Each structure stands twice: as structure tokens, then as C-alpha cells.
């Protein structure tokens, strides 16, 4: 009995000491730091169970309307600060990018599913700088001349697919965007029924699903990865399966290219040059695969989604389409004389504005931005942030704020007719801020520009009876199916004839 009382006393003493220590640390922390208003949550888990698993933009927008330019959430052991205006995003993530643009720990999505090799989740380190340099070499503005012939060919193929199989317009968007990057990186095209393309988008959506806050407990509480032995980590087998599927998709393409090189049948491309470099010789096999894989993913999804967003805007706000058509007809002919070309860009400023509006309008690729981590203590407008705080730009809230844009819910390209139509990064956060801005932004913008110019010139987009488009709920994860219904028809018999005359050869080209 005495022993039991002694144990109880000891446990009670330890508990009192721990609670007392926590109280003292909390008091000291509160004296040293001050965060923006905190959204009420529950003990330990904070706001983890409040955030929707998918389509988080409306949830975060509502909180921004309540709390103002910044608010704080707790997702497990992580403290997130949401930045809800372009002003604070510019001040912190752009002007202080050196300390605000690292990445927090993601033991599941980066550690297990990506074997610490996915550049989008890498913290600032030598590995990130090496991979970023490689990505910049292939995707920078200096490489545009390499991409343009493929964008020309593949956008003609896109028009052909819209004419011949209009009900498969979404798959055609994916094939188009993927085939541009596959041609540049691997020297091969993608077909509309290419199962490799389908599987690539499956692995990408698996990553996006698991990257949402609250989906994986170990990403909310990274300490669990350190204190729980690996054989007891119940989340690990699922992460390993996703990694194996992802690596298989990447490895298949790299193996095909390496076999072509051995056989002397490889078409010169980024991959053939990259495999000869000193950088690749220093990389692990996994890192090499993820360099190729990141290029495939980054070159595919953003363009696919943005083209779809602009089509949704054409259906729901057709007034701007007439103005776009007037410009296109003036340049390319009122009777379907020829397709728009890259050389027409200086005379098609409205189309450039349409593309910028497409990136702004409904930012559902990253509705609440992408989390970055502060690497040292900082102060801003009375707040004191500790190192390790996670920051994100609240993309949905900013894009749909009347304080940022006049009539923000309206698809209205005129808002970007300000002399900066060709400054693709100005006026929206579609490619992200600071040092984490999408390295392939110019290639992605050009993908969308030539595709939209030709599609708007040649096709009409109308609603399907009984299937209206709710632009506020267009899903981010589509499982390879169209996110909304749309009827695609040629503008006229002459426009159909133009597509047949100028695009059939592109659809039949093989390499």
C-alpha cells in the first residue's frame, strides 16, 4: 500500500512539474512572441478537424473576411499564419523571401512518399539549390525557343482533338500539356489514350490529396516520426505504396529514354543532355527520378487546369468572349483565314489579359497557397513571429477579395489591360510569391496562351442543359474525369475546315 502511494505521489509530482513547466514556458513564450488573431480550435489538435479535406479555399476566405489581413491556425503541432492580402504577401514572402520561403517538415508527403526528393517541399539547402538550378536551365525564359515549336504542334493537335472528340476535351487538355513537356524532356509525344499520362495524373493527385493539412497525422505532428519506431508507424505502409507507384511512373520514362540512348534511337532532348552532366552523376537514383518526375508533373497539371478554368469562364461569362473574338478576328481573319501564331502576341493583348485572368479567377490548384517556413525570429507591424512558424498566402481569399479586385467573382480580362499584359507574374499569385515562385511560370503561361488563342478562335463553349457550372466548387482532384460539363462546337463550318486543314498533320506526327 505504501509503495502504491509512493508511486502515485511520484507520478503526481512529475505531472505537477510538467504542467508547471508548460505554464512557465507558455508565459515566457507569450512575453516574447505575438501572433495574429488565432482561430479557436480544440486542445492538442487545434484547427485540424475544422479545415475541409478538399476545396479549402471557401473556408479560408470566410476566415479572412472575419479576421482581416492575417490570422493564425494550429494544425497539430504546427502554427500557420495565413496572409490574406497582396500587401502582406509582398512585404513578407517577397521582400523578406530570404527568411520566409523555406519549407516545414512533411514526414509523410516529402519523407516517405517522395524520399526527401520532391523539390516543391525541399527546405533551403544545397540539394534544393542544385535541383532548382537544373529546373531553371530547362524551364527559364531563355529556353522558350526550345518549347515554342512543340507548343505550336501540340496546340494544333489540341484543336484537332476538340473537333474530333469534343466530349473528351478535358483529357485533350491533359494530353496537350503533358506532351509539350514530354517532347522537351524525353523526346517523345503523348497520345490521347496514353495510359502513361493517365497514371502520371493519378500519382500527382495522390500527392495533392495527401498534402492537404490534417490528412496525415505525422505531417501535423512531425515529432511522431522521431519518437515512434518505424515498424510501429501505421501510416508508413500507405506512404511506401504511393512512393512505389510514383517511382514506377518516373522510372518507366527514364528507362525508356536510357534504352533509346543505348540503341542510338534517342531524339536529342533535355533528358539526353541531362544524363551526361556531372550533376546527375552526383545524384542518387531516387533524386534523378524525381527531377524528371517534377518536370513531368509541373509541365502538365497547371496548364491543364488553367485552360479548363478559362473555358468555365467562357461558359459562365460569355460577354468577354465576344471581345476576345473581335481581336482574334481582326488579326487572323473574320472568315477563319488562319490560326493565331506566337508572332501575333503584340497584337493580341486581350488574349494575354484573358490568360492572366485565368490564373487569378479561381485559384483551385493551391486554394490556400503552399506553406513556407520562417527560418529565424522576425517582427512585423507589432507581431513577433518565432522561427518555425509556417506561412501561406491565402490564394482564394486574395483572388476573390473586393479590396483587391473590382467585381472579383467575375471573369473580366479588362482588369489586366493596363500595359502590363506581358508581365505574366504581375497582378495575381497564380505562380506563387518570392523564391518559391514556380520556376516554369513562363513556359506554363505560353502553354495556356497559344492554346486559348486557338481554341477561342475556332470553337464555341456553351453550357450543357441541366448541368450548370458552379465555378466556386470546381474540384481540384478530378480522378481523370472532367470537373464540369461543357458543350464544344466549331464556331462555323469554315473554322472546322481550318482545323482540318491546319491541324490534321499535327495529330498524325509521330516521334
UniProtKB/TrEMBL annotation:
PROSITE patterns: CYTOCHROME_P450. The chain crosses the membrane at residues 6-24. Keywords: Heme, Iron, Membrane, Metal-binding, Monooxygenase, Oxidoreductase, Transmembrane, Transmembrane helix. One of its GO terms (molecular function) is monooxygenase activity. It holds the Pfam family p450. Heme binds at residue 438. It comes from the Eukaryota. Its cofactor is heme. The keyword Signal does not apply. The keyword Kinase does not apply. Belongs to the cytochrome P450 family. This is Cytochrome P450. It comes from Podospora appendiculata.
Amino acid at each position: 500500500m505504501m509503495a502504491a502511494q509512493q508511486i502515485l505521489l511520484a507520478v503526481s509530482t512529475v505531472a505537477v512539474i510538467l504542467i508547471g513547466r508548460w505554464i512557465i514556458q507558455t508565459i515566457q513564450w507569450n512575453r516574447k512572441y505575438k501572433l495574429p488573431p488565432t482561430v479557436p480550435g480544440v486542445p492538442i489538435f487545434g484547427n485540424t478537424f475544422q479545415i475541409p479535406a478538399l476545396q479549402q479555399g471557401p473556408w479560408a476566405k470566410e476566415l479572412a473576411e472575419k479576421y482581416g489581413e492575417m490570422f493564425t491556425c494550429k494544425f497539430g503541432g504546427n502554427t500557420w499564419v495565413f496572409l490574406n492580402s497582396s500587401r502582406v504577401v509582398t512585404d513578407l514572402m517577397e521582400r523578406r523571401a530570404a527568411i520566409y520561403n523555406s519549407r516545414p517538415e512533411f514526414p509523410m508527403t516529402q519523407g516517405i512518399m517522395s524520399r526527401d526528393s520532391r523539390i516543391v517541399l525541399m527546405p533551403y539547402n544545397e540539394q534544393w539549390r542544385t535541383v532548382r538550378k537544373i529546373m531553371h536551365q530547362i524551364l527559364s525564359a531563355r529556353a522558350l525557343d526550345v518549347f515554342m515549336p512543340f507548343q505550336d504542334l501540340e496546340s494544333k493537335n489540341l484543336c484537332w482533338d476538340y473537333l474530333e472528340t469534343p466530349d473528351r476535351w478535358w483529357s485533350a487538355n491533359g494530353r496537350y500539356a503533358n506532351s509539350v513537356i514530354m517532347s522537351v524532356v524525353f523526346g517523345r509525344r503523348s497520345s490521347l489514350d496514353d495510359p502513361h499520362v493517365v497514371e502520371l495524373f493519378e500519382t500527382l493527385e495522390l500527392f495533392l490529396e495527401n498534402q492537404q493539412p490534417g490528412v496525415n497525422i505525422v505531417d501535423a505532428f512531425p515529432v511522431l516520426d522521431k519518437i515512434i519506431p518505424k515498424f510501429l508507424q501505421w501510416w508508413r505502409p500507405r506512404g511506401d505504396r504511393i512512393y512505389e507507384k510514383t517511382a514506377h511512373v518516373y522510372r518507366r520514362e527514364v528507362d525508356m529514354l536510357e534504352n533509346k540512348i543505348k540503341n542510338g534511337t534517342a531524339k536529342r532532348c533535355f533528358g539526353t543532355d541531362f544524363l551526361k552532366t556531372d550533376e546527375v552523376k552526383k545524384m542518387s537514383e531516387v533524386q534523378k527520378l524525381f527531377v524528371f518526375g517534377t518536370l513531368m508533373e509541373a509541365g502538365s497539371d497547371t496548364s491543364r487546369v488553367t485552360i479548363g478554368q478559362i473555358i468555365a469562364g467562357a461558359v459562365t461569362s460569355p460577354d468577354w468572349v465576344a471581345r476576345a473574338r473581335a481581336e482574334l478576328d481582326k488579326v487572323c481573319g473574320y472568315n477563319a483565314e488562319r490560326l493565331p501564331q506566337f508572332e501575333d502576341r503584340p497584337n493580341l493583348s486581350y488574349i494575354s489579359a484573358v490568360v492572366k485572368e485565368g490564373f487569378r479567377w479561381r485559384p483551385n490548384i493551391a486554394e490556400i497557397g503552399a506553406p513556407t517556413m520562417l527560418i529565424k525570429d522576425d517582427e512585423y507591424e507589432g507581431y513577433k513571429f518565432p522561427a518555425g512558424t509556417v506561412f501561406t498566402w491565402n490564394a482564394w481569399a486574395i483572388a476573390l477579395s473586393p479590396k483587391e479586385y473590382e467585381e472579383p467573382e467575375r471573369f473580366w480580362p479588362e482588369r489586366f489591360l493596363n500595359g502590363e499584359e506581358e508581365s505574366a507574374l504581375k497582378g495575381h499569385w497564380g505562380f506563387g510569391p518570392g523564391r518559391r515562385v514556380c520556376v516554369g511560370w513562363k513556359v506554363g503561361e505560353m502553354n495556356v496562351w497559344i492554346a486559348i488563342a486557338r481554341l477561342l478562335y475556332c470553337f464555341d463553349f456553351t453550357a450543357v442543359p441541366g448541368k450548370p457550372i458552379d465555378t466556386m466548387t470546381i474540384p481540384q482532384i478530378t480522378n481523370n474525369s472532367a470537373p464540369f460539363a461543357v458543350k464544344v462546337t466549331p464556331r462555323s463550318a469554315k473554322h472546322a475546315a481550318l482545323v482540318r486543314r491546319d491541324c490534321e498533320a499535327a495529330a498524325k506526327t509521330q516521334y
